[in-house]
Amino acid sequence: MSEAGSLVDELRALEREARDAITGTSDSAALEQVRVAFLGRREGRVSRILRQLGGLSPEARPAVGAEANRVKQVLRGALEERERRFARERADTGTPARDLTLPGRDRWRGARHPVTLVVDEICDIFARLGFTRARGPEAETEWYNFVALNTPLDHPAADEQDTLYLKGGGLLRSHTSPVQIRILERYRPPVRILAPGPAYRRDTWDATHAPAFFQIEGLAVDEGITFVDFKATLSEFARRFWGPGTRVRFRPGYFPFTEPSAEVDVKRRVVGADGSVEETAWLEVMGAGMVDPAVLENVGIDPERYSGWAFGMGPARIAMLKYGISDIRMLYENDIRFLSQFA
Ligand code: PHE
Fold first, then answer.
1. Residue 286 Cα, ligand 1 centroid: separation in angstroms?
2. Spatial distance between the Cα atoms of 311 and 129, rounded to a whole number of angstroms
3. Could you report the per-residue pLDDT of 285-341, keeping only the tens digit for each?
4. 179 CA to middle of ligand 1, Å?
5. 146 CB less than 6 Å from ligand 1?
6. Residues whose CB falls within 8 Å of the CB of residue 288, separated by 6 or more in sequence, listed in order
7. For residue 133, how far is its CA from the centre of ligand 1 (angstroms)?
8. What residue owns the CA closest to ligand 1's atom 5?
9. Is the pTM of this model over 0.90?
10. Residue 196, SS3?
11. Cβ 287 under 6 angstroms from ligand 1
């Protein structure tokens, strides 16, 4: 083979080798090393071949020179393109790419709503006392919300001031007591149910009122149920929920659908960090009473044979006491920063 031919072959082999080396680099520093190895003025392998040009015959020189220049140009182009790619990558990830001293990002965890926590806890306690969970519609009729509950429509509770009436008749239930009627219509005693759910009233939206709020209705109807069962069951519930030292007080009250009626208050015992024991003020936690015989008659249950008791309580208020929440609106605004504290 001619001297020119072997040098041209050598240049082409170098070209392939250099291209592979360029594609194999992963950063600018490595790329610079490849550039020096092939195109470096002194020691570069392509430059060394160019330096041999002077020793070639005048006929061989142009062919080798042209090939050497072509290879040089191709390799410069490949180096530049690779460098542009590294620059793009740096711009994408930002420089410096990672700050390894930053704290890790916590995983997002969902939480049950504080009112749901209280509802479930109350339902669990009553479940162990033999009560089943029940529910009824939120859009009701005057019959279920008032009349069947021994509340005449001219009673202040039925007033448009308090109750949200729906267009075309019907209303949004103003308490969960209509579930008493719905259950007693469908099931004969013995009946023991707990019915948590929303109720609605035309109330202002302030720290202690919400126009949509949660209630839990309780109802027990059976043969031979007395005022003693009523007091004993609710006292037992209060001690299981607020602690064994809790005192319970039944104050006379009035509801059209219970007779006698009571407002139930609790006084909790709080043990301080230093072991000292203090009692809280009396807190009203529910309205309750013995089911009025007229209510049983309205659903075709013989009040001579059956009797019962019922209560209605507000789990939002109980959650506020339990978790030290001062504004009821926090429970309904669904601010994740507030709610995530219960995770
Ligand atoms: N429904 C009554 C209220 O909303 C509470 C209650 C329920 C009272 C059951 C007695 C019996 O205030």
1. 8
2. 15
3. 999 999 999 999 999 999 999 999 999 999 998 998 888 899 999 998 889 889 988
4. 11
5. no
6. 218, 230, 234, 250, 253, 258, 261, 262, 263, 264, 309, 310, 311, 312
7. 17
8. 312
9. no
10. strand
11. yes
